[in-house]
Amino acid sequence: MDTEQRESRLEALVQACVDLIEWRFQGEVDRGAAAMLLADGTIITGTSPTALNAAVEVCHEIEPFCAAYRLDLAVVASVCLHRDPAGRFLVLSPCGVCRERLAVHGPEVLAAVPDSGDLTKVAWVSLGDLLPHYWLAAFPQELASMSGWKTVPATPPLVAPNAAEARLTGGSSA
Questions:
Q1: Do 107 and 144 lie in a common domain?
Q2: Is the pTM of this model over 0.85?
Q3: In terms of domains, do 7 and 41 share one?
Q4: Domain range holding 50?
Q5: Do 20 and 91 share a domain, yes or no?
Q6: pLDDT digits (tens, 9 = 90+) for 115-172
Q7: 90 and 43 in a common domain
């Protein structure tokens, strides 16, 4: 996919998210949705259902993420929008849980984040840039099964273990 096609698909992704909010929540504010672009070009949208107990609510991304899994297709890009009381569509960057879910698809996944100058404009950031120090990088065996993520090189401890132990016990480190 060339740059022009990619930009066109990303614009269509954002529009699909807006369309879902406008269709599903006609005239309602403080509502949102998510959309994901899959590896085959399919766009999947979703929203989170209302729950009486806020502790059991889920992110808008759950529905498209599960659909991608069901279809056995990688997620290429993800956007989440929220319509505020003024009718603006605010860009919500993926929460920590959604970042973990997207990480399965590798560091090249594009995540929508708000533009620094305008919360209603999408800026696209790779997941690798969003998670520059991804925690799983410390576990090369697990990370090997996830495409694209880099492992953290082993580093020697800052303090020799016996010296640290000596400080804790009041003894000498020799």
A1: no
A2: no
A3: yes
A4: 3-132
A5: yes
A6: 999 999 999 999 999 988 888 878 877 776 666 776 655 555 555 555 555 555 566 5
A7: yes
